[in-house]
Amino acid sequence: MHFIIKTYAIVTTATALTTGASAQTAWQGGATPYIEIKNEPPPKLIVDPPLPEGLPKGLVWIQYRTENVRISPVLSEAALKVSPRVGHLHITVDDLPWLWADTSNSNTIDIYGLQPGPHKVTIDLVDANHNLFPGQRKVVSFTMPNWNGHH
Fold it and tell me: Could you tell me the pTM of the whole model?
């Protein structure tokens, strides 16, 4: 009898956990890479202002996320035909003549050591062949305060 009660308790607990978890789906995290998406909606880049906690330490942390494009280190003309689509970020600081490509999908751009004063970070969402997705350039302007490394 004790064995039956224990078994019933385990089955009931497992059922409750499974039922509670079924309210959410993995699909909410994005499409599977195994199935082509017909009529993919356009890509979208969402960017927040720098996190205020980093600025007094000389750190600029800018969080981002994308919709309808996977950030990935897949680059080439042929990769333009991949579905779900892939892309990456081009990041420029203060209109310098160079940029860096971010394919990490870490959701945070991390910059250290900017001089105190006004700055601008341009973030472009680009395809696998480095072409800007239309309308997907975001500019984040901020002022770097004096911090320990610069007085």
Answer: 0.76
